[in-house]
Design brief:
Strand content: 15-25%
Order of helices and strands: EHHEHHEEHHEHHEEEHEEEE
Distance between the termini: 65 Å
Number of helices: 9
Largest sheet: 5 strands, mixed
Length: about 300
C-alpha cells in the first residue's frame, strides 16, 4: 500500500486562448466564475482521457481538477499553491487510507467552490489567455515517469482533442481559438516568451527563480543598473538614494524597480526595497529594509 506521505503531485494545465469575438466584458465575466459541478466533471473526464491518450501512464495516476479558469499569473506562483490545494483535497478524499486512484473534479454549488482558495480572483487583470489547473497524483517514482513522458511529448503533441475544446467553449460560454495541455515548465516558457516581447526579461528571470529554485537565493542585475535578488520568500530591490542632480540612469533604475513590483505582484510575489552597498551582490540579503514603496527626494523636493 502506498502511504499518503509517499504521494507526489504533478501540476498540469489546459491553456486556452479566447477568440477575438469572446474578448468582451460579458465573456470575461463568465471566465472568472467557477463552473457548476456537471461542467467540471465533464471537462475533467475529457481531460483525463485526453492526457492518457498522449501519455498512457497517466491512466495510473489520480486526478484532482477544479472547474475554473485562471489568468496564467494566478497559477504561476511560488510553490504552486493551487496544485498544493488540489493535492490537499485529494488526500482528504482518501480519508486517511492508502493511495487509491480517483478522479476528483471540483465544481461550484450555488456559485461557491468547496475551498475558497480554488476560486479565481475577480479583480485580477483580464487577458485572452486562460488556464484550467489540475494535478496528477500518485507514488513518487510513478509520477516522475509520467512527468518525463509528458515533458517529452506535450509541447509537440499537446493540442487538446476536439471534445475538450468543445466542452470548454460550451461550459464557459465563449468562443475558443485553440486549447492545449501544458506542463508547468511549458506554461512558464509560454509566459516567458510574452514577457520578453514586452522587455520583461528580468521579470521572467525572477519568476523562474521563484518557481523553479524557491529555496535558493538568486542575484540579478538589470541593464539599467538595478540590483535585485530572490531571497527564498520575496524579491529584494536595491534602493539607491537620489544624486544631487537626478540623472536618467537613476530615474531608469527607479522606474524599472516599480515596473518589476507591478509584474511580480500579479504572481503573488512580495517585493521590498533595501538600502545596501553595490557589492557584493549578497549585500542585498542584508541592508536596511525600507518597505514595499519608497519616497524619493532630492534635497527638499519630492521627485
Amino acid at each position: 500500500m502506498i502511504r499518503l506521505d509517499q504521494l507526489r503531485h504533478l501540476p498540469l494545465f489546459v491553456l486556452f486562448e479566447l477568440a477575438p469575438s469572446a474578448w468582451t466584458q460579458a465573456g470575461l465575466a463568465r471566465l472568472q466564475r467557477a463552473l457548476p459541478r456537471p461542467g467540471a466533471e465533464e471537462i475533467g473526464l475529457l481531460c483525463a482521457h485526453d492526457l492518457a491518450r498522449i501519455a498512457p501512464l497517466v491512466a495510473d495516476a489520480g486526478v484532482s481538477m477544479v472547474g475554473a479558469s485562471f489568468d496564467p499569473a494566478e497559477v504561476l506562483r511560488p510553490r504552486w499553491p493551487l496544485a498544493q490545494v488540489l493535492t490537499e483535497q485529494y488526500r482528504l478524499s482518501l480519508a486517511g487510507e492508502g493511495f487509491a486512484r480517483r478522479l476528483l473534479f471540483f465544481g461550484a454549488v450555488d456559485g461557491a467552490l468547496p475551498d475558497r482558495r480554488l476560486q479565481p480572483d475577480p479583480t485580477h487583470p483580464a487577458s485572452p489567455w486562460r488556464v484550467l489547473p489540475l494535478a496528477l497524483i500518485g507514488e513518487g517514482e510513478a509520477i516522475e515517469r509520467i512527468e518525463q513522458d509528458l515533458e517529452a511529448h506535450l509541447l509537440e503533441s499537446g493540442e487538446c482533442a476536439p471534445p475538450v475544446a468543445t466542452a470548454l467553449a460550451s461550459w464557459f460560454g465563449v468562443e475558443i481559438a485553440h486549447a492545449r495541455h501544458l506542463t508547468a515548465l511549458d506554461l512558464l516558457a509560454v509566459l516567458r516568451a510574452q514577457y520578453l516581447q514586452a522587455d520583461g526579461e528580468l521579470l521572467a528571470d525572477l519568476l523562474e527563480a521563484a518557481l523553479l529554485r524557491p529555496d535558493r537565493a538568486v542575484f540579478l542585475q538589470d541593464p539599467s543598473g538595478l540590483h535585485c535578488a530572490w531571497d527564498g520568500q520575496r524579491v529584494r530591490l536595491q534602493w539607491t538614494p537620489a544624486p544631487a542632480q537626478p540623472c536618467a540612469g537613476w530615474r531608469g533604475r527607479l522606474a524599472r524597480g516599480r515596473q518589476l513590483q507591478q509584474g511580480l505582484a500579479l504572481h503573488g510575489i512580495e517585493t521590498i526595497w533595501v538600502s545596501c552597498a553595490d557589492q557584493p551582490a549578497e549585500a542585498l540579503l542584508g541592508g536596511t529594509e525600507l518597505g514595499d514603496c519608497v519616497e524619493e527626494r532630492i534635497g527638499d523636493n519630492a521627485v
